[in-house]
Amino acid sequence: MSNVLLDTNILILALRQNPLALSLLEQFIGDGDSLFVSSVTRTEILAGMHPREEEATFALLDTIPVLPVDMATADRAGRLIYTYARQGIQLSLPDAMIGATALQRNLLLYTTNRKHYPFANLDVRGLPSR
């Protein structure tokens, strides 16, 4: 049993009925894993949602607990952006916030873009292939 933070791209794929993403979500639920999303992910999903997708989007989003970005998480994200910028690595604000959420709460992070999360102490997993 694990505590898992889902990146935005995993949810987008699930909403698009991608078999690998749906299988991953089913596996987590079957294994009794605790699934979470960052409030940043919820914002990103809603920002890209088309009106025809609203019902399915909320049906999925409302089943997964949302973790807020608190002060400690915001501070950690800022430090990550600063530290990696000094190494020539540009992090997006959403990825830094999502990564910081996983680090602050000691969660596994599942994404399709592992390179967006180069953080040494973060356990990042990719979408498994068939």
The tally of beta strands, per DSSP, is 5
CATH superfamily of the domain at 3-68 and 106-126: 5'-nuclease
Quick one: overall form? globular
Largest sheet: 5 strands, parallel
For the record, give the distance between the C-alpha atoms at the N and C termini, rounded to a whole number: 22 Å
Q: Low-confidence spans: pLDDT under 50, at least 5 residues?
A: none
CATH level-1 class of the domain at 3-68 and 106-126? Alpha Beta
CATH architecture name of the domain at 3-68 and 106-126: 3-Layer(aba) Sandwich
Give me the number of helical elements.
6
Helix content: 40-55%
Mean pLDDT: 93
Fraction of residues in β-strands: 5-15%
| Spatial extent as radius of gyration | 14 Å
Q: Which strand order does the major sheet show?
A: 3-2-1-4-5
H-E string: EHHEHHEHHEE
Structural class: alpha/beta
Describe the model.
This protein has a five-stranded parallel beta sheet. The chain is of the alpha/beta class and about 130 residues long. The protein has a domain at about 5-70 and about 105-125: 5'-nuclease (Rossmann fold), CATH 3.40.50.1010. The mean pLDDT is about 95. It contains six helices and five strands.
Strand and helix map with partners:
Layout (H helix, E strand, L loop, with lengths): L2 E4 L1 H8 L3 H13 L2 E5 H10 L5 H8 L4 E2 L3 H15 L7 H12 L3 E4 L12 E3 L4
Parallel strand pairs: 1-2, 1-4, 2-3, 4-5
